[in-house]
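FW: tagging you since you asked about this chain on Friday. Here's the raw sequence from the shared folder, copied in full. Didn't touch anything.
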Amino acid sequence: MADPAQTERTRLVEYIRTRAAGLDGPRLQARVRAAAAEFEAALAGLDEDAARRTALSGEWTVAEVVDHVAQSTVRAAEELRHLRDGRRPPGPPVYEALVSGAAHRVPWTELVDGLREAIAALAAALGEGAPAPRAASAVTAPAVLVVSGAATAPEIFTAELTWPEYALVQRLHFLDHRAQVRRLRAALTPPA
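HL: got it, structure written out here
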């Protein structure tokens, strides 16, 4: 009998590989930018107090989510630059719980500005120069992926991804955390 976690991991990696293979550079860039915009839109109108308030026990605050996405995105931009240039990125992969700690001390507006700067760095890394040569597409980097099941604890694993696959993971990262922010905001709003 197949391990359900292994099956979900396999499905996720197959989805990433299939989707990335079907997208050229401009369409991939557009999808990542659209997902980043959706994540930013989920933050609209949130004030400092609400961003730092614990909404759900055991979950990050919205400010912590923003810090995580900003820190992860900056590192992802750096790794994408290496991959697009045909080099394996140095150092360990961007891990699933990367935070700076700024969410507790930096004003909310600065956290959001940092997020926007990180998104701009990612957009620049995705759009720099001509498309990566075919040889660069064969270079891989380890990416830490998370499969969340409704009935199970999240499964964390590492997969070797090419730059288009790695870029597509950034899109999924924005969308997953957009959904998280929406859940947190709904929990912050008292029922009518």
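FW: The helical segments are 4-21, 25-43, 48-52, 62-84, 108-127, 163-188.
HL: agreed, and The chain has a mean pLDDT of 90.
FW: great, closing this out.
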